[in-house]
Specification:
3 helical TM bundles of succinate and fumarate reductases, 227 residues, 74% helix
Amino acid sequence: MTPSLPVVSGSTSSSGQRLVQVQAVSGAVFAVFLAVHLVNQALAVLGPAGYDAAQGATRAVYQAPAVELFLVAAPLVVHLAAALARLFFFRVPVTVGPWRTRAFRLAGRFLLLVIVGHVVATRGASWSGAVPQGPRFEGLAFTFQWLPLVFWPYYLLLALAGLLHLTHGLAVATRLMGRPVLGGWGFWAVTTVGGALLVAGLIALGSGHFDVGDPMTSAYARWVQAW
């Protein structure tokens, strides 16, 4: 079964259709980075050395100025602007459509609320020069120890909302483009396996199973606590 397209009040107008298309295309471009980012988090099961090596290799690519500007930041800004425009002008309801579409919208609302803080918390450290490569394994382990009642549910929601927004969003976007992917069992397989791997990665980061010394003294911990 192919995923249902979003049911949007006002989307039958030409401006509504253009916003849907802009959001779909920008989301599909940003999906490349999001997929890499989620895979990186799942790789925490490899331990600090494997996780940091994978993060370092991928960051060298997606944090290159041209790549980050045109393939990460620009599509993200366009995607967010289109989402806000649809919310403001067409009042897209969360409760309309199949449950997958409703869950997709709820995930999008959550990501919309936290995305700016997430960018500042991850890229701000490197932009400031305090943590040039951004948070590493021990830096993320610090956040679990620092405020566990905040970061365990936050990271869990962030990872699973990002995964759902990625898989269902790609299904909808590629259907709009005439080349559907992740329909039917493909969606369920990728989302279920991906979700399990992300949870395993979070457990690896936050459980204290791997020895990273004292995370509270990491460069990222010092930067965060300096706020």
